[in-house]
Amino acid sequence: MRAVVFDRPHHFRVMDVDDPRPRPEQVRLRTVATGICGTDRHLLAGGFMARFPLIPGHEIVAEVESLGECVAGLSIGDLVAVDNTVLCGHCAPCRRDQPLYCDHFFSLGVNGPGGFADLLVARAEKCFPLDGLEPMTAVLTEPLACAIHGADVLALRPGSDVLLFGAGPTGLLLAQLLVHGGAARVTVAAPSPHKLDVARHLGADETVRMDRSDPQASLRRLRALAPSGFDAVIEATGAPAVLAMCPEMTRTGGTVLVYGMAGADDTVPFSPYEIFSRELTIKGSFAQTHRFDRALLFLRTGRIRTDGIITDRFPLERFGDALSAVAGSTSVKAVVMG
Ligand SMILES: [Zn+2]
Ligand SMILES: [Zn+2]
């Protein structure tokens, strides 16, 4: 089969590799659509949990092609969204209901073979049938599942005034979750006017363009919206300079959520006195487990909308173009088609 292979930092090839063979509890899947995520760029650079050689791709919709001998409940030809997380179920964190920190955490497309390939194998119970949901909608199940975990971590109080930095696919999904999750007002701040248009279209109450050449002017506009600060400020860009602005934009007693993935060596200067004297809370949200069923229900009912999020589609051979597309200001999400 053909696969994208990250073989060393900053280098990949689209090449022929052996077809994977399903174990008894696994199915073999033919990929239909796999989303490109910012994490893929971190992995290509050798960051996060990268282990080379790696077949990336963790936002996967695929068709069941063959069944391991112990698989029940799936049929050949089923279209499924694949929960990429693999958990052991018996280590200490799994046994204390913290499966996200499983000692043997394994993630398809992150530290094991993923969806930028013709075929992949996955455990049957991690395959969620689409039951008629459009594949190009379902390909957002994994990012939405992560956003649901973020909203769970944030635990917003009803009536909150929320500021969200970032209008990428994740920001656009999170903004909608916050609207439905009790925010009285959601403000999205980002540099791209196009992405801010999409954010407004999907339900953001206010949008503020972050002018990279004059960030202070952008901050003044945000302060004019909420002179005492926002109840919750979410960093969904991964840029340390953006996170550094979050505490000062947060109301006394409020919460900063670190959602975007920064580099492992990045640091951010904070005033400990400000955190202490204004009783700010800083929370982190990393990936997801067990959020696929809720994500799929949101997508099925249309309560979370996806229009305007997928802007680019590429065949597997043009993986490099797909990676570059998402760095542009008009592309939101690129998808590699099987
Ligand atoms: Zn991702
Ligand atoms: Zn475990």
How many beta strands in the DSSP annotation?
17
Q: Which structural class is indicated by helix and strand composition?
A: alpha/beta
Ends distance: 12 Å
N-to-C SSE string, H for helix and E for strand: EEEHEEEHEEEHHEHEHEHEHEHEHEHE
| Shape, per Cα inertia axes | globular
CATH-assigned homologous superfamily of the largest domain: Medium-chain alcohol dehydrogenases, catalytic domain
Q: Tell me the helix content.
A: 25-40%
Small molecules bound: zinc ion
Mind describing the biggest β-sheet? 7 strands, mixed
Beta content comes to 25-35%
Ranges where pLDDT stays below 50 over 5 or more residues in a row are none
Domain Alcohol dehydrogenase-like C-terminal: 169-297
Keywords: Oxidoreductase
Protein name: 2-deoxy-scyllo-inosamine dehydrogenase
Domain Alcohol dehydrogenase-like N-terminal: 24-130
Based on the model shown, name its key terms:
single chain; 338 residues; alpha/beta; Quinone Oxidoreductase, Chain A, domain 1; Rossmann fold; seven-stranded mixed β-sheet; six-stranded parallel β-sheet; 11 helices; 28% helix; globular; binds zinc ion; NAD(P)-bd_dom_sf
Would you write up a description of this structure?
Helix 9 links the parallel strand 14 (250-258) and strand 15 (281-284). The protein is α/β, with parallel strands linked by helices. The chain has 2 domains: 2-140 and 309-337, Medium-chain alcohol dehydrogenases, catalytic domain (Quinone Oxidoreductase, Chain A, domain 1, Alpha-Beta Complex), CATH 3.90.180; 145-284, NAD(P)-binding Rossmann-like Domain (Rossmann fold, 3-Layer(aba) Sandwich), CATH 3.40.50.720. It contains 11 helices and 17 strands. The model has no long low-confidence stretch (mean pLDDT 95). Helix 4 (141-154) crosses helix 5 and helix 4 crosses helix 10 (292-301). The structure holds zinc ion (2 copies). One zinc ion is lined by residues 37, 39, 58-59, 143.
